[in-house]
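Technical annex B. To support the medicinal chemistry partners, we prepared a structural model of the target in complex with dioxothiomolybdenum(VI) ion, based solely on the information shown next.
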Amino acid sequence: MRFDQPADPNAADQGRVLGRPHARIDGPLKTTGTAPYAYERHDVAVGQLVGYPVVSAIAKGRIKAMDTRAAEAAPGVVAVITTLDREPLPKARMNVVHLFGGRDIQHYHQAIAVVVAETFEQARAAAALVRTDYHQDPDARFDLAAERRAHQDDEVEPASRVGDFDSAFQAAPVKLDATYSTPGQCHAQMEPHASIAQWKDGTLTLWTANQMVAWSRKALAKAFDLPLEKVRLDSPYIGGGFGAKLFLRADAVLAAVAARATGRPVKVALPRPMIANNATHRGLTIQRLRIGANEDGRITAIGHDNTTNTPPGGGGEEATIPTEHFYAGANRLLVHRPLEMHLPESNAMRAPGDTAGQMALEVAMDEMAEKLHMDPVAFRVLNDTQVDPGNPERRFSQRHFVECLERGAREFGWSKRNRTPGGRRDGVWLVGHGMAGAYRGSPAQASGARVTLKPDARVRVETDMTDIGTGSYTIIAQTAAEMLGVPLEAVQVSLGDSDSPVSAGSGGQWGAASATAGVYAACLALRERIAERLGAEPGDLAFEDGQVRHGGETTPLAGIGGDGDLVAEDRIEFGDFRDKDYVLATFASHFVEVGVHAYTGEIRVRRMLAVCDAGRILNPITARSQVIGGMTMGVGAALMEELKVDTRYGFFATHDLASYEVPVHADIGEQQVIFLDGEDPCSSPLKAKGVGELGICGVSAAVANAVYNATGVRVRDYPITLDKFL
Ligand code: MOS
């Protein structure tokens, strides 16, 4: 079905199951350690070998020679396959760098060989015996600050321009001109990249951990020059993604290469210390924000100039994204400067663009409010807009940002905060309060599903949608239960198999709204099948308590298709009215209380509140989990996380979980999440939006603003570690 106009207020669902809190249906499998993750698929592909990656020790140059003799002679080794043994694989679709690219080295820890053995230990030991000679290219660029200085006068076509920024900024009576930097960040997902590959009868099967099954199926087909139907992916359980698993990675390619060479199934996981440099990261940014306002606090000019690293052909971290649409202001200039460097591949990480952008923008808004002697909440309320400031032809389909701000201020007790920075003590702790706004777009992607009604009234839903820990299994089961009037327990959900209908996948916070809409479409198609059976019109049927009511009669769903299954498949396509007439976005306010130790500078986050405007919430439990996960990640970005670049050699030195710090439970105080009630009829037939990426946006700035309020020291360089303000 096509979704090409706002949803009917009397949609087919009654909110009996959808919109209600349900614990995740895959929870027991996960808490008992029995959910089958890719590396532990012992139930598939008999006779698995283990592959261990060999990775480049230089960041840019060429391989002169590789000596694999010692590795080949090591115990248990079945094969050593180097990137010189074969034609370089073509670049996989949508990947920025080559995953197994021949002699040319594009980045540090690029995969250059895979050692295959009977056991993991044998493969790892032998991998250490591979000797590689390189020609190192001295003309390599690793230092973003230096590159920025070299390119600061480059003429760049603005990403967006409205009005006349330069004149308006110059004329503004109150101005801010400040520069902020954010480091590279690692997804640090719990489950590393991992795949088992098998070749059988010309078909490549991959049991893997991947957010976008259909994209990666195409990527594999391209890399191995296979027709699409000769590639199958299975990715039912995924231990975190955050964007790391949007695209094919080296684990998949090495496993496939090794399985083909040995004629046996091969499994490969990227060891944790390889992930940061071999896979992708959130790019580094240096952002200059200029805001001009009238004395009354109205913004007249807003400029955002972002510099970021990218490998050749990439887009870098688009930190200007939020500034395009968030606050009012007639004169706007956004400039995005991705500089080609030789660091590992920067790519999408949770709310790409928006997270890093709001780490700067929302601190700049705080600084600007201070210059204006305004409350930062009131400053944001004053500059709210219902019209897209980047394109006045469009309105926000729904924007309750002011409600987020006002409700948050009330619930948090914002009026009781101390307005003078550095002025509140609690024993040895300096106490501070900060807030920020949050913005994240809410796109949609076409999504398909197949729904089967069994003779016993059980329902099976199949789609290649993924659950990266987000709750997809649960909201999809809720959708089918809602639409067919059966209990949640009667619905079985199969995800992540490329043999199932192609879905939206998990990315860009479009997954929940898009995939449930696809299941909704398939359920409507199944209702039609049922109506045919009953000789009724689909619109006259009511589905409830395992029964269908029609014209005063009641028929049990069980047996309605006789002894066989009733099967229906459909797909939701989203019409362009969404983007032509509207901006679809989600909003939040974040309020944070921190304590900063007066002598050591240790920062403790004491309590956090988020108020979210994200359309209809399909399941308050899983949605809240998404938001508190985002808030926690935002604390990490504010205070801890940094892929520290060794600018001599071009690698991230903090490439394991000992040196790349992320928050743990003990780092996080009280977290409260409030969802505003709001259905967005422009978003999907179920009026839902995404929330998983909204949860991180703005959080780090709220923490930074609270640290400023506690100490009176403004740190514009993340992460805010104690050395930066003592
Ligand atoms: Mo997201 S960074 O599109 O998984």
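Notes passed to the chemistry partners:
The chain is about 25% helix and 25% strand.
Residues 353-388+397-438+584-724 form a domain with the Aldehyde Oxidoreductase; domain 4 fold (CATH 3.30.365.10).
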